């Protein structure tokens, strides 16, 4: 199984880039993982929130491949503890044949087209985080899940 984190727009803060890249490299020790960036829209000041969501949604859906299992990182999704997420990943590694794709949307969330394409929604917290911070939190939790599954020392419980 390949695992992909699909994000809208590049990460700009150097300290986030460094930390994200560190956890991406650590995670690659355990599974095939990549972060795919959809370029952010240009001239968004002239676009309404809904139009921006629709245009981003089209780009997100174009990135999907046949057979993908799509999980939206969404405030309305299911919350899990780290141990539960590790169990979730174990189940997915046994059942997903192609790609498991986690998606972080743009600043206004997802279009209806993206919600319709999704198989599941997952929430990292009831709190709101910046999109750059969500990327870091997710890759750290993915690394933690893989380390838990391998019996590594990273997680203490």
Describe the protein's architecture and organization.
A five-stranded parallel β-sheet has the order 2-1-4-3-5. The chain is built from five helices and five strands. The model has no long low-confidence stretch (mean pLDDT 94). It has 157 residues and is α/β, with parallel strands linked by helices. The chain is globular, with a radius of gyration of 15 Å. The chain has helices at residues 14-27, 49-63, 82-95, 112-117, 131-149; strands spanning 2-8, 32-38, 69-79, 99-104, 120-123. Helix 3 (82-95) links the parallel strand 3 (69-79) and strand 4 (99-104).
What does the secondary structure layout of this molecule look like, with pairings?
Layout: E1 2-8, H1 14-27, E2 32-38, H2 49-63, E3 69-79, H3 82-95, E4 99-104, H4 112-117, E5 120-123, H5 131-149
Parallel strand pairs: 1-2, 1-4, 3-4, 3-5
């Amino acid at each position: 199984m390949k695992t992909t984190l699909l994000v809208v727009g590049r990460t700009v803060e150097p300290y986030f880039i460094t930390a994200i890249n560190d956890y991406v490299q650590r995670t690659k020790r355990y599974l095939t993982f990549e972060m795919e960036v959809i370029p952010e829209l240009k001239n968004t000041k002239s676009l309404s929130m809904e139009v921006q969501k629709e245009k981003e949604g089209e780009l997100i859906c174009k990135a999907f491949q046949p057979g993908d299992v799509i999980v939206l990182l969404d405030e309305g999704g299911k919350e899990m503890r780290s141990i539960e997420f590790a169990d979730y990943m174990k189940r997915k590694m046994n059942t997903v044949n192609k790609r498991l794709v986690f998606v972080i949307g743009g600043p206004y969330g997802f279009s209806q087209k993206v919600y319709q394409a999704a198989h599941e929604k997952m929430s990292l917290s009831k709190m709101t985080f910046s999109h750059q911070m969500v990327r870091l939190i997710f890759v750290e939790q993915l690394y933690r899940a893989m380390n838990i599954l391998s019996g590594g020392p990273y997680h203490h419980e």
